[in-house]
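Supplementary Methods. Inverse-folding protocol.

Structures were first reduced to a discrete structure-token string of length 142. This string, shown here, constituted the complete conditioning input.
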């Protein structure tokens, strides 16, 4: 291999490595990760209903996925998947605006899980909340 061929091979390889090092992180950012479906159907929370104050929210584990339990300002308990439908960030409850909010890209969901502002393309999955005595049981909808 003469010097010209070696330089061509070296520069071509370096340019290819540079392109891969730039394009891979960009593609990982633009393509959302796959979220595995939780196999759990019911979860009994360790939180007592009286411990959830009005106009507050709390993230808990629903099987292998995060979920959020919200007590509305009117006192109603609701539960949703806590995985944002935009890029799978974890949402939280913001008592100052009484919305579920995704901090990643300023996505807002109302207390029915409907996407009302920002980039989320679809609503959050809603779960059924049953209060049995001092226990909160969250279930997937049938």
């Amino acid at each position: 291999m003469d010097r010209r061929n070696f330089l061509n091979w070296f520069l071509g390889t370096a340019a290819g490595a540079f392109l891969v090092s730039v394009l891979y992180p960009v593609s990982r950012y633009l393509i959302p990760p796959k979220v595995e479906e939780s196999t759990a159907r019911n979860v009994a929370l360790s939180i007592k209903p009286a411990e959830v104050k009005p106009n507050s929210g709390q993230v808990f584990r629903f099987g292998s996925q995060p979920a959020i339990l919200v007590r509305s300002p009117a006192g109603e308990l609701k539960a949703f998947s806590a995985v944002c439908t935009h890029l799978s960030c974890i949402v939280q409850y913001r008592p100052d605006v009484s919305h579920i909010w995704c901090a990643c890209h300023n996505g807002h969901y109302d207390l029915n899980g409907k996407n009302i502002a920002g980039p989320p393309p679809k609503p959050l999955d809603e779960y059924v909340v049953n209060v049995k005595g001092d226990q909160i049981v969250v279930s997937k909808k049938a």
